[in-house]
Amino acid sequence: PLVLGIESSCDETGIGIVRGTQLLANTVSSSMDEHVRFGGVIPEIAARAHLEAFVPTLEQALAEADVTLEEIDAIAVTSGPGLAGALMVGVAAAKALALATGKPLYGINHLVAHVGVGVLEGSVLPPTFGALLVSGGHTEILKVTSLTNDVQLLGATIDDAAGEAYDKTARLLGLGYPGGPAIDKAAKDGDKKAFRFPRGLSLPKFVGSAEEPGKHRNNFSFSGLKTAVARCVEHFEAAGEPIPVADISASFQEAVVDVITSKAVRAMQENGLKTLLLGGGVAANTRLRELLAARCASAGITLVVPPFSLCTDNGGMVAALGAQLVAAGAEPSGLDFATDSSQPVTNIVLEPRS
Ligand code: ATP
Ligand code: MG
Ligand code: FE
């Protein structure tokens, strides 16, 4: 099927067009630059930017794919999770398109789309596989039995997401926004063993108690790490010494990546999963890719990492999941669905209101 995908959950307006598992166009317009001076995404500014960018982004994608709206078989749009106002712009636009063209509309889960993108670009995924989703808003380990109707949450962060930890730590170190790429770069000149920062929820006492064994086995926590970095910075400031930004960056990064990779690999082993798909914006991190590849290799797990342009928010991933839903004969969502800012990863496609 020829499917149009619309993404507007955060600061990227994305329109993607796929035919089956072939990506025909993937146009993204980001409002990132407008948020830089605030040190984070401002929801109202993001929503307004989507309104501005929607039609030009759509026209560019259609031209690039060399298809017309009439030729499209179905439309898929991110219904959640994400920023409420930002989601509403994309969903309202998608409904208008569906109404005008008579095409079926699917309201789909952004997180599952981050995983569904793995079917593009010739990657072959087995029927059941694991996924590690690391982004600005989420850090989750998933078991995917069927992309279109069975995604199970094995573990998630109980406080900050990995990308959020990078962004907050970068601010502490005066590295600016977005923090992920800045820390990744600074860490290259640092010693990752200079400081031993905490690995959240990995000590036996946090992993589970007698009453709740293994409660946090697959969960993450990054707020203690952020505090440890803050204390470390204060220590140097109080002593009137220069802050060793490169060493702190490298040590912080190692703490994040060590705990993410070891928990993900262990969860794969404990659930008998042989393939792991890495997704989300933090998948761009060089140390994460390196350590995850090494740990997957020694555990006999096949690691699938989509190209970076498909890991960050884009419409192609929404179209990819939409095409899977059409192929599986899933029922469209109709035109009456709302957005769901905290749509759980287990809710893959919104059902029509009866
Ligand atoms: P969600 O998908 O949870 O709604 P999001 O879509 O906003 O969140 P993404 O756009 O997928 O998140 O990723 C953005 C995050 O990725 C930011 O927090 C950014 O700092 C981080 N990031 C980007 N590049 C790197 C990198 N090289 N190393 C670490 N983090 C990175
Ligand atoms: Mg983003
Ligand atoms: Fe995302």
Automatic annotation (TrEMBL):
Belongs to the KAE1 / TsaD family. Gene3D superfamilies: 3.30.420.40. It is found in: Cytoplasm. It comes from Glutamicibacter ardleyensis. Substrate binds at residues 133-137, 167, 180, 184, 285. The keyword DNA-binding does not apply. Its cofactor is Fe(2+). Binds 1 Fe(2+) ion per subunit. This is tRNA N6-adenosine threonylcarbamoyltransferase. It catalyses: L-threonylcarbamoyladenylate + adenosine(37) in tRNA = N(6)-L-threonylcarbamoyladenosine(37) in tRNA + AMP + H(+). The gene is tsaD. Required for the formation of a threonylcarbamoyl group on adenosine at position 37 (t(6)A37) in tRNAs that read codons beginning with adenine. Is involved in the transfer of the threonylcarbamoyl moiety of threonylcarbamoyl-AMP (TC-AMP) to the N6 group of A37, together with TsaE and TsaB. TsaD likely plays a direct catalytic role in this reaction.
